[in-house]
Amino acid sequence: MAAPLELSCWGGGWGLPSVHSESLVVMAYAKFSGAPLKVNVIDNTWRGSRGDVPVLATEDNIVSQPAKILNFLRKQKYNADYELSAKQGADTLAYIALLEEKLLPAVLHTFWVESDNYFTVTKPWFASRIPFPLSLILPGRMSKGALNRILLTRGEPPLYHLREVEAQIYRDAKECLNLLSNRLGTSQFFFGDTPSTLDAYVFGFLAPLYKIRFPKVQLQEHLKQLSNLCRFCDDILNSYFRLSLGDG
Q1: Fewest CB within 10 A of the end CB: N or C in the chain?
Q2: Which positions fall inside the Mitochondrial outer membrane transport complex Sam37/metaxin N-terminal domain (predicted)?
Q3: Structure pTM?
Q4: Which residues pair with 63 in a beta bridge?
């Protein structure tokens, strides 16, 4: 019998199995590939490091970061990409790089830097799942980490000031959403009728943006105008997560 695969990740809310993009990427890929994950939702009894979430544990391995976890699952013969051509495999890598460069900074900003969203939604949600007194410290540390990650990719000349950086990252993110919408077209998934790694990444990045009710919603409003991307998220939630959803 195969060793159990246990995924520790942030939990759900707003109709999502997780509100955390990187956790969602792994959860979706596991569903698509048939990997039998036992999901451990992090709450305020969790004793591990929260900086590395999601974390996959087996009898012999502990793996963090979505790309490394997906590679580990593929080596265990859980491969959602086995029907893809070499060209589609190359496209997958290119689109994931695009997501991380052009969309992720705006997603991080929406959650962790935009102050109305952070203080009314993000900070209370995460603080309620972290034990005291870490709950007073860790959300702020996560917010600083998100800002540093944004500035690392965007804070070079001529964008010296945060306001200029913000304007650019939202422009980039909207262009990225438009590209994804055009690429998906009327297809069910990005490479036809079967979901693959790219679908897991797009779902993980878009679903929290689509579903979580934020007070400041400029990127969310743009996404909701792209009906095929919204339908894509809804279809994956309904087809793969309907029985496991719990609102957090």
Answers
A1: N
A2: 23-142
A3: 0.92
A4: 56
Q: Provide φ and ψ at 8, rounded to 5°.
A: -100, 125
Per DSSP, the chain holds a count of helices (H) and strands (E) of 11, 4
Tokens of 80: 């959602």
In tens, the pLDDT along 163-192 reads: 778 888 999 999 999 999 999 999 999 998
The structure tokens listed for 39 are 């999901």
pLDDT (tens digit per residue) in 11-69: 999 999 999 999 999 999 999 999 999 998 887 666 665 567 899 998 888 998 999 99
Q: How many angstroms separate the CA atoms of 187 and 148, rounded?
A: 36
For residue 141 the two structure tokens come to 């540390």
What whole-number distance in Å separates Cα of residue 75 and Cα of residue 94? 22
For residue 4, what is the DSSP state?
Answer: P
Q: What is the pLDDT of residue 149?
A: 85
Q: What is the CA radius of gyration of the chain?
A: 18
**Packed helices 21-33 and 197-211: angle between N→C axes, nearest 10 degrees:** 140
Q: What is the pLDDT of residue 136?
A: 86
